[in-house]
Task: inverse folding
């Protein structure tokens, strides 16, 4: 039984049919890369499991049970964390405050619930140590962190909250080479802890390094799924540009 | 392109750099403003014999109380990356209605909750228009600035309202342990606000929304609820200020609080708040209010025209924002 399964997802924005029956299955403990040309529908597809969009048709199953997310919050409470490239963190807050944002532990002070900062601090330090991350846990705010460190904070958040599924939409798009390696490392780490990771990216070298399996999208459909070790860049590019299984058989 | 060494990951060096920048961050602009305020005090103490007398100091404490309460309220929308331009007019409208109720011999204990309720209602209207209708806060509250002032003139006929009960000026005249009662009230309101911002989830969500509303929404924060609460606090504190002004002048004045919104915004900004949201403290607001009150008071004592006073205040705001910007850039690693 797959951890997360999308089947026959259709989605149109007005007259534009963006998803035309997406089928995709994610196993626990694997990194499944999702590749495809610009506009293929990758982001739109994963926004359905993030609770941002509702499908026009089709269904999503989480651990075999059919689910319908009515909000991002709902998806999150069911264990699906999405890390967006651009809006992952609140700059004004510390690393710990970001990791706990929206789910702060509280303690009573004169009968009033107040945020338990001591707990946040100690949990954050332990978590960052466990991730052997280079994020300074005591940084006053995340504003001064680099792009890779920010991604790491977002991933740490997912790990802490025991996400079952973590979706990373182009996590390395704006990063320097060294930082990419760190994010790839963290993604593998998540998978090693039993999390199912969906990893969207454009850099095929990186994709083949990080992924267990690769799914290729073309014009709103998943047209090819293959184990990373059984494919190569040339093959992926063929499928990304519209090569079909039928053609493959004919050849 | 300016290079940013802080973004190259190189083990411990990165951590050190970030720690150092967080240290720099801990010396916020409020400290400089406080230092400057003390300098102004010393200067005024030297140039005017009257400045440091007990009478003038308690006079200033009363003045700063009202200004600071308005500024505390204003801080909440500012942290959200919003703004409330209507607080001066709200203070006038609530004040004049409070005075009219008292003049009609309504007991204070009835007039007070009614005025508070009116303040909350106005905040709710502002907040709903901003969040539910999606109209920019600047526009909504600009309409309020004009509209509530107009209502104030309408209900009062543009005249002051006299005939306050003699008990009313108790708040304005009395002291608790030598500290003006008004100042004590302001301190209590300030402490409660500080507590909310610093220690509660609500406060944390204000900063989160101010720095990134969309990501706050995505982690499940109820942005609408927080927005409503913030605009209600701004209007409520304006109503408090309105009533305190009535108590201080022992009459309702339809011209009360003209320009108070700008003064409050300036105090918050000078105290380290950012109009782009996500930043600002109650302590900073208080320091900013003290500075502006001091300048106003000092200018009067030294016979400096109120026009020059406005020019000085304007320059000061520009200077503080400039210094703050440099600091922020340095902190972000941009040289
Ligand atoms: N809210 C929307 N309204 C209308 N069209 C949309 C909307 N969101 C996406 N689209 C369209 O759907 C198509 C797929 O977009 P999507 O962002 O899912 O692509 P993508 O595969 O993530 O591409 P990229 O690699 O560029 O991120 C694009 O043509 C886009 O213009
Ligand atoms: Mg995309």
Result:
């Amino acid at each position: 039984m797959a951890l997360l399964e999308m089947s026959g997802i259709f989605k149109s924005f007005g007259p534009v049919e963006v998803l035309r029956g997406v089928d995709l299955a994610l196993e626990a403990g694997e990194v499944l890369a999702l590749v495809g040309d610009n506009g293929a529908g990758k982001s739109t597809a994963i926004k359905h499991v993030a609770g941002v969009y509702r499908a026009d048709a089709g269904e999503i199953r989480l651990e075999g049970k059919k689910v319908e997310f009515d909000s991002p919050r709902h998806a999150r409470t069911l264990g699906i964390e999405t890390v967006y490239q651009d809006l992952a963190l609140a700059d004004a807050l510390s690393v710990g405050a970001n990791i706990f944002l929206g789910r702060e532990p509280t303690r009573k002070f004169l009968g009033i619930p107040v945020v338990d900062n001591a707990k946040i601090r100690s949990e954050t330090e332990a978590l960052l140590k466990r991730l052997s991350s280079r994020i300074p846990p005591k940084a006053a705010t995340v504003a001064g962190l680099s792009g890779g460190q920010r991604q790491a904070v977002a991933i740490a958040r997912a790990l802490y909250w025991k996400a079952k599924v973590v979706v990373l939409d182009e996590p390395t798009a704006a990063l320097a080479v060294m930082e990419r390696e760190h994010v790839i490392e963290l993604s593998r780490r998540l998978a090693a802890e039993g999390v199912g990771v969906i990893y969207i990216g454009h850099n095929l070298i990186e994709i083949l390094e990080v992924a267990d399996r690769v799914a290729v999208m073309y014009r709103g459909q998943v047209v090819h799924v293959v184990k990373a070790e059984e494919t190569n860049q040339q093959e992926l590019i063929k499928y990304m540009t519209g090569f079909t299984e039928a053609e493959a058989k004919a050849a | 392109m300016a290079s940013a060494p802080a973004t190259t990951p190189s083990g411990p060096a990165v951590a050190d750099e970030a720690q150092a920048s967080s240290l720099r961050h801990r010396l916020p602009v409020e400290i400089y403003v406080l230092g400057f305020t003390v300098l102004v005090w010393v200067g005024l103490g030297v140039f005017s014999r009257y400045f440091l007398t007990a009478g003038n100091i308690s006079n200033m404490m009363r003045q700063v109380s009202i200004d600071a309460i308005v500024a505390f309220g204003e801080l909440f929308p500012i942290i959200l990356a919003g703004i409330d331009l209507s607080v001066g007019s709200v203070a006038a409208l609530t004040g004049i209605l409070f005075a009219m109720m008292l003049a009609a011999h309504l007991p204070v204990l009835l007039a007070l909750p009614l005025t508070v309720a009116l303040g909350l209602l106005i905040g709710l209207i502002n907040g709903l228009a901003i969040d539910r209708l999606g109209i920019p806060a600047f526009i909504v509250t600009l309409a309020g600035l004009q509209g509530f002032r107009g209502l104030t003139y309408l209900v009062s006929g543009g005249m002051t309202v006299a005939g306050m009960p003699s008990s009313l000026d108790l708040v304005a005249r009395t002291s608790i342990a030598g500290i003006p009662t008004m100042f004590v009230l302001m301190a209590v309101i300030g402490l409660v606000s500080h507590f909310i911002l610093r220690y509660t989830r609500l406060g944390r969500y204000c900063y989160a929304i101010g720095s990134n509303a969309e990501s706050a929404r995505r982690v499940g924060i109820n942005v609408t609820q927080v927005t409503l609460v913030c605009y209600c606090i701004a209007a409520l504190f304006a109503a408090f200020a309105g009533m305190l002004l009535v108590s201080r002048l022992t009459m309702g004045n339809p011209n009360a609080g003209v320009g108070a919104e700008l003064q409050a915004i300036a105090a918050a900004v000078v105290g380290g708040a950012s109009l782009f949201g996500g930043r600002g403290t109650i302590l900073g607001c208080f320091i900013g209010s003290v500075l502006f009150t001091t300048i106003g008071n000092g200018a009067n004592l030294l016979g400096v025209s109120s026009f020059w006073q406005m020019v000085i205040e304007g320059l000061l705001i520009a200077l503080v924002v400039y210094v703050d910007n440099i600091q922020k850039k340095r902190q972000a690693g941009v040289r």
About this structure: The two ends of chain B are 10 Å apart (CA to CA).
